[in-house]
Fold this protein.
Amino acid sequence: MSREVDVAIIGAGSAGLFALSQVRRKTENFVLIDGGELGTTCARVGCMPSKVFIQVAADYHRRTIFDREGINGADSLGLDKPAVMEHVQDLRDTFVDRTLGATDALDEAHLIAGYATFVDDHTLEVNGEQYKAGAIVIATGTIPIVPETWQSFRDDIITTDELFEHEDLPASVAVIGLGSIGLEIGQALSRLGVEVTGVDMLENVAKLQDPVVNKLVVETIGREFPLWLGEAAQLEKTEQGIRVRSGDKEVIVEKVLASLGRKPSLDRLGLGNTSLQLDAKGVPVFSPETMQCGNSSIYVAGDVIVDRPLLHEAGHEGRVAGYNAVHQGAVAFRRKTALAITFCDPDIATVGAQLDELDESTIAIAQMQFAPVGRALILGKNRGVLRLYVNKSDGLVLGAAMACVKGEHLAHLLAWSIQQGMTVFDMLKMPFYHPVIEEALQGALYGVLSELDIEEETVELEKL
Amino acid sequence: MSREVDVAIIGAGSAGLFALSQVRRKTENFVLIDGGELGTTCARVGCMPSKVFIQVAADYHRRTIFDREGINGADSLGLDKPAVMEHVQDLRDTFVDRTLGATDALDEAHLIAGYATFVDDHTLEVNGEQYKAGAIVIATGTIPIVPETWQSFRDDIITTDELFEHEDLPASVAVIGLGSIGLEIGQALSRLGVEVTGVDMLENVAKLQDPVVNKLVVETIGREFPLWLGEAAQLEKTEQGIRVRSGDKEVIVEKVLASLGRKPSLDRLGLGNTSLQLDAKGVPVFSPETMQCGNSSIYVAGDVIVDRPLLHEAGHEGRVAGYNAVHQGAVAFRRKTALAITFCDPDIATVGAQLDELDESTIAIAQMQFAPVGRALILGKNRGVLRLYVNKSDGLVLGAAMACVKGEHLAHLLAWSIQQGMTVFDMLKMPFYHPVIEEALQGALYGVLSELDIEEETVELEKL
């Protein structure tokens, strides 16, 4: 038996749900297929619980400034770690419940619980039943990477999919992999009293391309817990715990947090039965502007693409895939200006083009250290740096990298400015309040003026 | 004896120094005249020390969320008030020192210590010496208003010019005047353990025009300390302290914080000797685009205008006045989009046009309550509201008012967007990260779509 539908969406996570929102503007003849637990990666194990965890760590860490501010008794503060975890879980459950609203409203003719396998480019099989679909959206997400060699002590490994299920925290943890997630969770664990050692085979953390920003991050966070960079970690189970070696350093820890990244959930899809061309990771080759795979009626969206595993990108991709799944011809849409934030202290953020995408001979780098930024000094957080990449010829701002307090907000201001094609001169004509962190951006913009090939007589003023 | 100079600037505060920066691009034949203590209002008694004070109060207040987060021992925290004040003074001194850098570098031929009086439109007298100036910039700033009837117990009155000089805090304070400064200092005092009563003859605080935002602020801050609104305060000295009456309410307090606003420092200027037309407050009538007073060679800048007593506006006005003082013809410059922030918790901010400037029949109001905003919930600060004023016909965003966590950053994003003429549709195509407070703006923008006269097929997506 086979059902015919206009669209089949595989995966009821964020990208699938955003795709669905577009599909339903045109048709109710769809199926949303999901074989796992409902609720998005973002709400269940990603953005949301991690931000709660990080917030508690930040609030607890803030006690280190109390003495300077005239607040007594910081030494009397302590942590009830099970209570911390319960707080994280309570809020997480709230967020998961919200995402379930979208699927709760679907009947069993629309929401299919099971794993889909491609029969051909237009046919899926789920639980023994076939679905012929006019268009198919693949939004199956990712699963954490745990190396094969670690499987013999899998119980000692925690992935971020599992961390927030724990009712208590281990005494010591090695964080293997210092991308955004490893670095932010590692710092939070450390601030919550866990003995943390961070290890990464790369010298740069949080995927930073900018050496100045990376150096500041490594030095600043490295004062809170050791960061072992540049050599791969070797793990070995011992009676005392897991021995972690990196170069000539070693430590024995209770648990290992595996934050080596996530791999696309593609194993069950049977993509070999389609006409699709696959890349080295097994992901269908697709257009980032249409989300279409080759010339097929198959679209991809969300983390499964691996490229930009961020909720707002999954939203964008889901919308584009969903739109094109119900419209003739694959319409190309402009990608949003790249924006990535690591919720460490200091915030780490990158916006627009990064150094590996730029020709350094044609750009000037606007740099502002946070030491003299008044508001940062008031916050006791004036260790930071902001770097802007600016076209020398016309002052166009192309990208930025930063590690600084309130970086998440500066990053939005910059992303919007870059997406609108603003130059250094345009930005200096905008209002900067006082005393605010945005003045660091103003400082960076002023600083780069002398390095540009053009100049304006009244930089901050616009003649009427 | 009389000296001839190209430009005389009266007042070495922020506006005067910004004017000077423009003047010195053209001439070194200037005098900067100041009769008071050097250092700006901003650094000495305004923006900077108040922000330090507010930061300590916010950090101390944060303990109220600790129990919920699993952090023990909040009850053991206490305040060393003299240490708090010392911290405020230490940082303030740092900021004052920086502003002195600009005047320290001037010799006594350029920096004149004394009060200037106009002899005529081109002539000033200072310390018995006359200066004939091609152009004159008035940037004399303001002084706090203290009613004449309070002078008999002046020692019990504290102005914000004096507050940060104190070595300790009083046990109880009535804050009279709940504009931005009164409200933010009142809340900080309350959080630092002072018994605070706030009084204002108006029903709206922080100059808010928006009734929804005002209501939220009054209710939220009113839970921390009483706000007596709508009737003027009557003060009377008693043996127990100052009796403050407002309508049928009364309280006896140790000190009164006078935050009734500031008045322009014009008394010594002898403006009657000029040809200038003066307004009801005695401020010369001027053009906000050129800062020129009538057709004279006299310009005004900064708080003395009373209209926009904000550092960044003083900076803008100072630059325009300084530019025009050394250029032929008064060049008109575009004013920046209005941006005002009150550093309370929640932040209060207004951007662009406010309701009293708008025709409500032609606008739709985009409103977002913060209760469901994920990041606000994580921060434990989801009591807030954001309101955007949008042109119904084309979706142009005209203004905004808000009271919410991180409002200062949302306000910048909105001010820049409004200054660039962005519509609701333009803004929805920008990146919004997750989970961030900026998503509240996204929510407001979505919410108003159905109230606009126009629609777009792909609201969040831009076709290539």
In short: The first strand of chain A starts at residue 2 and ends at 10.
